[in-house]
Amino acid sequence: MTEQPSAPVQPDEFDPDEEVSEQKAVRLAKRARLIESGAEAYPVGVAITDTIAAVRERFQNLESDVKTGHTVALAGRVVHLRNTGKLCFASIQAGDGDRIQAMLSLAEVGEESLERWKELVDLGDHLFVVGEVITSRRGELSVLVSEWKIAAKAILPLPNLHAELSEETRVRSRYLDLIVREQARSTVRARAKAVASLRRTFDRHDFLELETPMLQVQHGGAAARPFVTHSNAFDTELFLRIAPELFLKRAAVGGLERIFEINRNFRNEGADSTHSPEFAMLEAYQAYSDYNGIADLTQELIQGAAFDAFGAHVVTWADGTEYDLGGEWTRISMYESLSEAAGVLITPETPQAELAALADRVGVEIEHPLRGKYVEELWEHFVKPGLVAPTFVMDFPVDTSPLVRDHRSIPGVVEKWDLYVRGFELATGYSELVDPVIQRERFVEQALLASKGDPEAMRVDEEFLRALEHGMPPTGGMGMGIDRLLMALTGLGIRETILFPLVK
User: Fold this and answer.
1) What is the CATH number of the domain that holds 477?
2) Residue 98 labeled ligand binder
3) Residue ranges of the chain with pLDDT lower than 50?
């Protein structure tokens, strides 16, 4: 019998510990009949000559009821199926979402082939068809099938193609999301185009792409809680990296003056709409530059990615909102913008007790030994919610930025910026701290915090300090989350921009 598509089953209804569903049992029986007949349920390949997209492009303006005389061999997934007495129809979909109709007639293929189609083909199967390109009486571009075979038998049915997938299903079963939802497919394509654009921009500026270790004997390069593992081969504790920074700087010491890396970072912290424990990260370093020069480069990278992925600097988010990434982006001072928003002068010399009192008055809970942490938390309360357009927030407290150079003219701050886009932090940039004596002092301060129980504090990295003592040139550096870049370009949450996000 032919399976009817009227009652699709959600994949999360299947439990391997329960009795096999009726639909699955029917499909398994069809698979067995295919094999018993000498056919293959999963052939090693099929001889396609054209893609569905190419056929649609070539024959896009045909009138109704036209025969082209052009034969094609196509493959795709069956997403619609309608069988009648002497004529059967299927809509087959390519991986990019393009569809074409396959028409199977008794006159063209004969009774045996038609009956086998009705008996064996289900929604979700991958199908190979050969036939002439025509248009139906309704004008639908079609393939009049002369030969067909199953390219891969689907044992489980597709979800309802006319209903929204739940967010849980989209995230846990991304393969179904990609089959069903154009937004999922377009996000993957946009990400690939954006990353390719980043690499092209770096190439234009003579940067080299490097790969640095993900398993490290000591975590560093950021303030974050690491994942810890154990190497049996070396019988030692290892850390999944929280940042590639300290190894990229070793390369800079070695004379690689313009370098970048796009790869994975891992931070054993909370997950929300803008954070994931595993995420893709870009870091780049340019010798003889500073945080101003690296900000210029970052703007160029992001604007280029937007244009190459969507054809414009004004991008349209998933909810229809337009967001402008063009032009020159505003640069504001953290201390000046906080003072203006809070209505009270706040400087690097403002006592921590005054900052704590202000936090209490506005209901901001802060428990941290560093004065700079109060400044940053208050800034997030007063200023961050009002940032909509892309904005570089410049000049951070020195005690919260242990890898950053002191500001050349403002005591108590460092030459660091955070880039806010869509109201969240997208990237950060530094004039890098290259003085090994000051860097050691900063590491010692971090080690003291770690000894007092701060799980995010860095340890003294003697190997990195030894490299730095050989001399690292003045350098501008930046880091940007690739997943967050896609959030800025698409308006989606982080779990939508990561193809297979970590879920419980």
Assistant:
1) 3.30.930.10
2) no
3) 1-20
50 alpha-carbon distance from chain centroid: 30
Does residue 209 sit in the same domain as residue 296?
yes
CATH number of the domain enclosing 127? 2.40.50.140
Burial of residue 100 (CB within 10 Å: 0-12, 13-18, 19+) is: buried
Do 491 and 318 contact (CB within 8 A), yes or no?
yes
- Kindly report, residue by residue over 54-65, the tens digit of the pLDDT: 999 999 989 999
Total residues found in the chain within this entry:
504
> Are 392 and 417 contacting, i.e. CB atoms less than 8 angstroms apart?
yes
Overall number of domains in the chain:
2
pLDDT, tens digit, 9 for 90 and up, residues 155-204: 999 888 888 888 888 889 999 999 999 999 999 999 999 999 999 999 99
Rounded-to-integer distance, Cα 65 and Cα 415, Å: 69
Residue 225's nearest CA partner among 284, 285, 271, 260 is 271
Distance set, CA 142 to CA 109, 175, 224 (Å): 16, 27, 56
Please report the pLDDT score of residue 219 as a whole number.
Answer: 82
Domain that holds residue 115: 16-152
Residues 223 and 133 in one domain: no
DSSP state of 18: S
Q: Is the CA virtual torsion 105, 109, 113, 117 positive or negative?
A: negative
The answer to whether residue 95 sits within a structural domain is yes
* Whole-angstrom distance, CA of residue 189 vs CA of residue 312: 16
Q: Are residues 133 and 258 in the same domain?
A: no
Q: What is the spatial distance between Cα 227 and Cα 278, in angstroms, rounded to a whole number?
A: 10
Is 3 annotated as contributing to ligand binding? Answer: no
pLDDT of res. 457: 66
In DSSP notation, 19-42 reads PPPHHHHHHHHHHHHHHHTT--SS
